[in-house]
TrEMBL record:
This is DUF559 domain-containing protein. It comes from Curtobacterium caseinilyticum.
Length: 250
């Protein structure tokens, strides 16, 4: 049965980074994991043999909850969070279902899985927002409100993330917003930039907003870049922390 990251790709979840060079398969008849050229054969673990309707060349594929559990415990947290959050976003999986699929008690990858769980939210609209969410968890931000709306001056400005504890707006600023014809909807890229500037000016004028942090894919690719971006806004953060940690204001 296809499992782990291979099953995630079959389910259509997005992958951060290069495609894996080996296929993951769980085999009921073996007792320990075997690494071979082009394939990793996994011994079955607790809950590892649930089947989904999906098949690839007649081979069954692990169901979404089991796949998410394995990915959350074995992949880097940003890879796992972006992949699993896509299933949460489209409604085919919930964070509660993932939590139920995780082995009870401490174990290999359990802390990593809890970090991933803390970042999942169906309100994230894109992979870039999912990526930003897991980085916010990693640097120890407390309360994070996705898709928060600010109403003022006859406008309703919806932001990707509102961090009320530190009064910061975080926006994922993807290039697609300025280049994708579907997102431009007939507008000139310069008009989109001007609209974004006016919107950010309105947000900065609000008394409760300390600053607006714009995050690009480049910042997300490395945690130290993400931390440096926050420090450039006079928001001093530490290294990776457990979910529920905090960010210290300057």
């Amino acid at each position: 049965m296809f499992t782990h990251l291979t099953a995630a790709l079959i389910h259509g979840w997005p992958l951060i980074g290069p495609a894996p060079d080996r296929v993951h398969v769980t085999v009921p008849t073996i007792e320990q994991t075997v690494h071979r050229a082009g394939v990793i054969l996994h011994a079955p673990g607790a809950g590892a043999l649930h089947l989904a309707a999906a098949r690839l060349d007649g081979v069954p594929v692990g169901d979404r909850a089991t796949t998410a559990s394995l990915v959350a415990r074995t992949e880097p947290v940003h890879v796992a969070a972006v992949a699993i959050d896509a299933a949460v976003r489209d409604g085919s999986l919930t964070a509660a279902q993932l939590a139920d699929a995780l082995p009870a008690g401490p174990g290999r990858g359990s802390r990593r899985a809890r970090t991933v769980l803390a970042a999942l939210d169906a309100r994230h609209e894109t992979a870039g927002e999912s990526y930003t969410a897991i980085r916010l968890v990693q640097i120890g931000v407390g309360q994070v409100v996705p898709q928060h709306e600010f109403r003022h001056d006859g406008f309703t400005d919806r932001v990707d993330f509102w961090l009320p504890d530190i009064r910061v707006v975080v926006e994922f600023d993807g290039k697609q917003k300025y280049t994708d014809p579907a997102m431009l909807a007939g507008r000139h890229p310069g008009d989109v930039v001007w609209t974004e500037k006016r919107r950010e000016d309105r947000l900065r004028r609000r008394r409760e907003v300390r600053t607006v942090v714009r995050v690009t894919w480049w910042h997300l690719e490395r945690l130290d870049r993400f931390q440096a971006l926050f420090r450039s806004h006079d928001l001093h953060v530490g290294g990776e922390t457990r979910p529920g940690g905090h960010i210290r204001n300057a």
